[in-house]
Design goal:
single chain; about 290 residues; alpha/beta; Pyruvate Kinase, Chain: A, domain 1; ATP_synth_F1_gsu_CS; proton-transporting ATP synthase activity, rotational mechanism
Length: about 290
């Protein structure tokens, strides 16, 4: 049984930890409001741009498709898949990073079973240890985000440029992006999105845009300009969604940690009081026994 001194030290230690988790919870809550607003503001633009690109792509694919950008036409193969896994650089966010990595690992296992070659491109540091341990030698590149306090469009541009160069140099055939879509502080949804080449929805209306819009220059020329921009925008959206998800997960995790610390403090305090009462009772018994002996 722990001594009174040990119990007192444990209570003090847990109280210090509780102050830290409470402070981190408040910081995450403050950051969450801004991060959530940024993620929600980016969604309409990214969705609309993706829809425009898909509609143009489906129209071109429905015709001859001659001269189409490699980002649309693909390499003609489906052998090498690059999994772009977006994680954070910090922990203390519950299962936020683990859930993204879990989704990427499940996809990698599925592709490997199909006989495909899998490679990883990592954004952030937290996913690297698990992926490197599970799929040794398959990480081909990593983008460092430690110097940025919050996601920026320039980061997305750099990542998009690196991925496009790798694709055009024949390093992979298909790129899948993994990130966490923010739903609420309690719910973040691991999401997979194919970003290279552009994926044309099966239900895309190939004549919808052509019926209402005339393009100058040609659809192919416009699409050549929009495809790289769309990759950047989709990456930027993913970074913003990840940031909001991380803050939400961190706030929830720190709230749970604060509550657990409070429960532990109560239990230790009860144990301390009982031990102290037992010690006092023992001393009284000894004093009374000594007095009676006289």
């Amino acid at each position: 049984m722990a001594s009174l001194k040990e119990l007192k030290l444990r209570i003090g230690s847990v109280k210090s930890t509780q102050k830290i988790t409470k402070a981190k919870q408040m910081v995450a809550a403050a950051k969450l409001r801004k991060a959530q607003a940024a993620a929600e503001a980016a969604r309409p633009y990214s969705q609309r741009l993706e829809a425009v690109v898909a509609s143009l792509a489906s129209k071109i694919a429905g015709g001859s498709g001659e001269g189409a950008s490699p980002l649309l036409a693909g390499t003609g193969k489906d052998e090498v898949h690059l999994l772009v896994v977006a994680n954070s650089d910090r922990g203390l966010a519950g299962a936020f990073n683990a859930n993204i990595v879990k989704a990427a690992r499940a996809r990698a296992d599925e592709l490997i079973q199909q006989g495909k070659t899998v490679r990883f491109y990592l954004i952030g540091r937290k996913g690297r240890p698990v992926i490197n341990r599970t799929f040794p030698g398959m990480i081909v590149a990593q983008f460092d985000t430690t110097g940025a306090k919050e996601p920026g469009y320039s980061q997305a541009e750099q990542i998009a440029h690196e991925l496009t160069d790798m694709y055009l140099n024949g390093k992979f055939d298909v790129a899948h992006l993994f990130f966490s879509r923010f739903k609420s502080a309690l719910a973040q949804i691991p999401t997979e999105q194919q970003i290279i080449p552009v994926k044309i929805p099966e239900d895309a209306d190939r004549n919808a845009i052509a019926a209402t819009v005339e393009y100058e220059p040609s659809e192919e020329a416009i699409l050549d300009d929009l495809l790289p921009r769309n990759i950047t925008v989709q990456l930027f959206k993913a970074l913003l969604e990840n940031n909001a998800s991380e803050q939400g997960a961190s706030m929830t995790a720190m709230d749970n940690a604060t509550r657990n610390a409070g429960d532990l403090i109560n239990k230790l305090t009860i144990q301390y009081n009982r031990s102290r009462q037992a010690a006092i009772t023992t001393e009284l018994v000894e004093i009374i026994s000594g007095a009676e002996a006289l």
